[in-house]
Amino acid sequence: MKSHKLQGSTSNEVEAMNSNEYHQQQHLPEDDEIDLAELWYAIWSGKLLIIAISGLFAISSIIYAINQPNIYQATTLLAPASEQGGASGLAKMAGQFGGLASLAGINLGGGGTDKTGLALEVLKSRVFLEKFINKHQLLVPLIAAENWNAQTNTLIFNDDVYNATTKTWLREVEAPKQPEPSSWEAYQAFKDILVVAVDKETGMVTLTIEHYSPEIATQWLLWLVSDINAAMRDQDKAEAQRSIDYLSTKLQETQLADMQTVFYQLIEQQTKTIMLAEVSLEYVLKTIDPANAPEEKAKPKRALIVVLGTMLGGILSVLIVLVRYFSNKGNNKDDINHSNSAKQVAEPISGSTTAAKVTAEVTSK
User: Fold this and answer.
1) Is the bond leading into 176 cis (omega within 30 degrees of zero)?
2) Within the chain, what is the greatest distance between any pair of CA atoms?
């Protein structure tokens, strides 16, 4: 009877200890919760590391911002040139004489085209920009320049890219590229510094070019406006001349007096187009506010670079401190849990051994 009581009490003790272990495991997730006080304590405990990393990023940002070259932005404001009587060629007379011309088997076409929109698309095209770069020899200042000396008003070239003394390209590139930039590379480089903006309400056009030298940016912008007007003027002159040749041929073929009148008027219209193109320098785009060399840089925003760099360092340092703090906390918690588990396993074994010895002694007696 005594043996059964001792065995019963030992079993109750084991169940009690297992119950305590279960309750401790149930309370473990509460210890993993993060409150604001603990978060602030973790940040405050690592304040020296945060200050050190933020300071390092701030100094690096200052050095980086100082070493960035100034970039100047030249801007010009343009307006669509007023349409002249012969600017739209055959299309302008299509409504008036289209019926008579169709009797002779001639199609005069539809409505007029948007000269300004067409000119801007031509201006941004690869063919036009490649011709523009070659015509004005912009390849070296476009690709090889890395800074500008304001005192001497001269460009500073990258010695690893171009030797200004021997006028040779030194770029190290992989095939199929060559040391001297191709026309495609020049086009891409110029496209990156050119901005074309159109105001949808007023129709005004703003052209912007960025470069290390404000005078070069201004000169390129003046050349660009002049060349696009010249290109559109030459295109219209060529089209008008082809129209005159075509109408002259048709005039010789027809015997109808009414059709001859139509052809004479169309030829007169195309002749007027050529005349107006010859005398109009600003044929498509008229300058409202001409480009002028800017005295203030457009980029870089050095103060903004320093502020953003410092903020980035602060955020990164806080994350590092929090990760280190909670990683160490998790390791310590695991060590404590392993220690408690070992004790809880050892206690039931020890109690069972003692109970077994007592029971054996009682039984023997």
Assistant:
1) yes
2) 150
Q: Which residue has the tokens 């510094």?
A: 193
Asked if residue 21 is part of any domain, the answer here is: no
Q: What's the whole-model pTM score?
A: 0.70
- SS3 call for 147: strand
Choose one of 272, 299, 326: the last residue of a domain: 299
3-class DSSP state of 161: coil
Query: Which amino acid is it at 264?
Result: Y
**Backbone Cα Rg of the chain:** 42
DSSP 90: G
- 289 with 139: CB under 8 angstroms? no
Q: Which tokens belong to 119?
A: 């000119």
What DSSP line would sit under 114-139, residue for residue? -HHHHHHHHHTSHHHHHHHHHHHT-H
Q: Structural domain of residue 311, as residue ranges? A: 2-7+37-66+304-364
- Based on the fold, state whether residues 91 and 175 are members of the same structural domain: yes
Place of tokens 């002249």: 84
In-domain check, residue 127: yes
**Consecutive H or E run containing 313:** helix 302-364
- Residue-by-residue pLDDT tens, the chain, 365 positions: 444 444 444 555 545 555 555 454 444 444 445 578 888 888 888 889 999 999 999 999 999 999 999 999 999 999 998 654 434 444 455 455 555 555 444 545 444 457 889 999 999 999 999 999 999 999 999 999 999 998 898 999 999 999 989 999 999 888 888 999 999 999 999 999 999 999 988 889 999 999 999 999 999 999 999 999 999 999 988 888 888 888 888 888 877 787 778 888 888 888 888 888 888 888 899 999 998 888 889 888 999 999 999 999 999 999 999 888 888 876 666 555 555 665 555 555 555 555 455 455 545 55
Angle at 102 (CA atoms; ends 99, 103), nearest 5 degrees = 95
- d(Cα 241, Cα 270) in Å, to the nearest integer? 7
Using DSSP's 3-state secondary structure scheme, residue 167 falls into: coil
Secondary structure of the chain: what % helix, strand, coil (to 5)?
65, 10, 25
